[in-house]
Design brief:
The chain is α+β, with helices and mostly antiparallel strands. It is about 35% helix and about 25% strand. The strands form 5 sheets. An 8-stranded mixed sheet has the order 6-10-11-20-19-18-15-14, sandwiched between helices. A 5-stranded mixed β-barrel has the order 1-2-3-5-4. Strands 7-9-8 form a 3-stranded antiparallel sheet, with no helix packed on it. Helix 6 packs across helix 7, helix 8 crosses helix 10 and helix 11 packs across helix 13. The radius of gyration is 29 Å and the shape is elongated.
Length: about 500
C-alpha cells in the first residue's frame, strides 16, 4: 500500500470517528447544531491588550480549537477567533466531571464557547481559566497542520475557508485589502465624489476593448452581456449633472487567466466634470499613496524583494518617447501605416490585417517597453486607434490625452480626457464596428444611447480606472492575483 493510500485511509478513519462522536452527542441530547446564539463578551486580542484591567474578571470567548494538550484531569487548548489565538486552561474540578469527559472528546477544528477568569500562567502567558466549556459546532473534517507545495496551493484557493483558518498571513492579506478599499472610499468621499451603482447586465458590452461573457434573459428572450467596464454608464451620470462619481465593483472579461488576470476582477472607475487627464494623474498618484499609507503606514513598499517608491510625483513619459528610449524606434518620423507595419515585421511583431500605425506603436510599447517600467510611471499620449473613448491631443490629433499608470511593469490604471464630441465618438465607434466585423471580438460595440447622451451634452471630463486587484497585490506583497481574491475562478475538479 502506497503512503498516499495509507494516509487517505487513515484520514477516512478519523473522519468516521468524528461522525460517530457527533451521533453520540445527538443521541444524548447534546446536539451542538441546535445552539443558535452565544453572548461573546471579549475576543482574544482584547483580553491580551486589556489584561491589567481584566485580570480576575470573567469573560466569554468563542472560537475554534487549534491546539490541545493535557494530562489526566487538566488540559490547555488554543482557541482561535477573529482576532487571533488565546490559551484556555480547562480543569475537571472547575467545570465538572461530566463536562470534562465531554470536553476531552472535542477535536481540533471544533468550535466552542469558553467562559472563565482571565489570568496569567506561571510561564507568563495570558489565558482564560475555564469555568464552563460548550461545544457549538462539530468539525467533521480534519484541519491540515501545514499547507505547502503546488498541489496544496490549488487546494488553498479552492477551500479558502480552510486556508483562512490555518494560515494567519492569508487572513491578514484580506484585512489589508479591506482597509485599502475603505481608504479609497475615504479619499474620494473627502473630495466630494459620490459612490454609485450601475448595471452588471446590459444589452451592449462597452467601455473597454475586451471579450464579454454572454448570458440569456429568458423573460425578454434576448442575449445579454456581463459588463466589461462601468465607463459608459458613469459618463451618462456626468451628463445628468452628477459632477463627481465613482463605482467600485466587479468586471467580467472572457479572456485568459494568469497570475495577473482573473475572469472577474475588481476596479474603481471615477469621473470628474470640468477636469482633464492631468488632474487624473494627480488623483492617481495621490490616491495610491494614500491607500499605501493607510494600509501599510508607508509609501515605500517591498514587492517580492524589490523596493518600489509610491511617493508622488511619479515619472511621466509619452508612449512615443518611451518607444524611442527602450525600443530605439522613432515613430515621430514614421509617416504612414505601411512604414509602421514594415518596422513591426522587422521587430518580429505579428501584424494583423486591420492594424494601422497607432496599433503598431501600442504593440511595440507592450513588447519592448512595459518590462522596464518598474517604478511608478505615467505613459501618456496613446494613439487614437487604441483609444476610442479619449479626447484627441489638440497639438497632435494622431494621439490622445490619455495615460496608463505602470508599477512593477504592470498597468494598474488607465485614464483620459473623455471624448465628448458625439460626431467624433460615433465615427470611432463605426471604426471599431468594422474591426469587430473583421473578426476582432474585443473591438467596441456601437452604443447608440451613449451617442445620444453625448448629444445631450457631456462637459469636459476626466475619467480614471484603477485595477484594484493588482494594486492589492502590490500593497500585500502577493505574487498572484489569486492571493488577493477570496474566491478566485478555478477549473472544476474532475470527478
Amino acid at each position: 500500500m502506497s503512503d498516499h493510500t495509507s494516509e487517505e485511509k487513515s484520514l477516512n478513519e478519523l473522519i468516521k470517528i468524528r461522525r460517530e462522536k457527533l451521533d453520540e452527542l445527538k443521541n444524548t441530547g447534546q446536539d451542538p447544531f441546535k445552539i443558535e446564539k452565544v453572548n461573546v463578551t471579549h475576543h482574544s486580542s482584547g483580553v491580551k491588550e486589556k489584561f491589567e484591567t481584566l485580570e480576575g474578571e470573567v469573560v466569554t470567548l468563542a472560537g475554534r480549537i487549534m491546539a490541545k494538550r493535557g494530562h489526566g484531569k487538566a488540559s490547555f487548548i488554543n482557541i482561535q477567533d477573529k482576532d487571533g489565538q488565546i490559551q484556555a486552561y480547562v480543569r475537571q474540578d472547575r467545570i465538572g466531571e461530566a463536562s470534562y469527559q465531554r470536553f476531552i472528546t472535542y477535536d481540533m477544528g471544533d468550535i466552542i464557547e469558553v467562559e472563565g477568569e482571565v489570568f496569567k500562567t506561571k510561564k507568563g502567558e495570558i489565558s482564560v481559566k475555564a469555568t464552563r466549556v460548550q461545544l457549538l459546532s462539530k468539525s467533521l473534517q480534519i484541519l491540515p497542520e501545514k499547507w505547502h507545495g503546488l498541489k496544496d496551493t490549488e487546494l488553498r484557493y479552492r477551500q479558502r475557508y480552510v486556508d483562512l483558518i490555518v494560515n494567519p498571513d492569508v487572513k491578514n492579506t484580506f484585512l489589508k485589502r479591506s482597509k485599502a478599499i475603505k481608504a479609497i472610499r475615504e479619499f474620494l468621499d473627502n473630495r466630494d465624489y459620490i459612490e454609485v451603482e450601475t448595471p452588471i447586465l446590459d444589452t451592449i458590452a462597452g467601455g473597454a476593448s475586451a471579450k464579454p461573457f454572454i448570458t440569456h434573459h429568458n423573460t425578454l428572450d434576448i442575449d445579454m452581456y456581463m459588463r466589461i467596464a462601468t465607463e459608459l454608464h458613469l459618463k451618462r451620470l456626468i451628463v445628468g449633472g452628477f459632477d463627481r462619481v465613482y463605482e467600485i465593483g466587479r468586471l467580467f472579461r472572457n479572456e485568459g487567466m494568469s497570475i495577473k488576470h482573473n475572469p472577474e476582477f475588481t476596479t474603481i472607475e471615477l469621473y470628474e466634470a470640468y477636469a482633464d487627464y492631468q488632474d487624473m494623474m494627480d488623483i492617481t498618484e495621490q490616491l495610491v499613496a494614500y491607500v499605501a499609507e493607510k494600509a501599510l503606514g508607508t509609501t515605500k513598499i517591498n514587492y517580492q524583494g524589490k523596493e518600489i517608491d509610491l511617493t508622488p510625483p511619479w515619472n511621466r513619459i509619452s508612449m512615443i518617447d518611451a518607444c524611442k528610449k527602450y525600443a530605439n524606434v522613432d515613430f515621430d518620423k514614421v509617416t504612414n501605416d505601411e512604414e509602421a507595419i514594415r518596422i513591426a515585421k522587422e521587430l518580429g511583431i505579428e501584424v494583423k490585417p486591420t492594424m494601422k500605425k497607432g496599433h503598431i506603436i501600442n504593440e511595440v510599447f507592450e513588447t519592448f517597453v512595459e518590462k522596464h517600467l518598474e517604478q511608478p510611471t505615467f505613459i501618456t499620449n496613446h494613439p487614437v486607434e487604441v483609444s476610442p473613448l479619449a479626447k484627441r491631443n489638440p497639438d497632435n490629433p494622431e494621439v490622445t490625452n490619455r495615460f496608463e499608470a505602470f508599477v512593477n511593469t504592470w498597468e494598474i490604471a488607465n485614464a483620459f480626457s473623455e471624448l465628448n464630441d458625439p460626431i467624433d465618438q460615433k465615427e470611432r465607434f463605426m471604426e471599431q464596428l468594422s474591426q469587430r466585423e473583421a473578426g476582432d471580438e474585443e473591438a467596441h460595440m456601437l452604443d447608440e444611447d451613449f451617442i445620444n447622451a453625448l448629444e445631450v451634452g457631456l462637459p469636459p471630463t476626466g475619467g480614471l480606472g484603477i485595477g484594484i486587484d493588482r494594486l492589492m497585490m502590490l500593497i500585500t506583497n502577493s505574487p498572484s492575483i489569486r492571493d488577493v481574491i477570496l474566491f478566485p475562478t478555478m477549473k472544476p475538479l474532475e470527478k
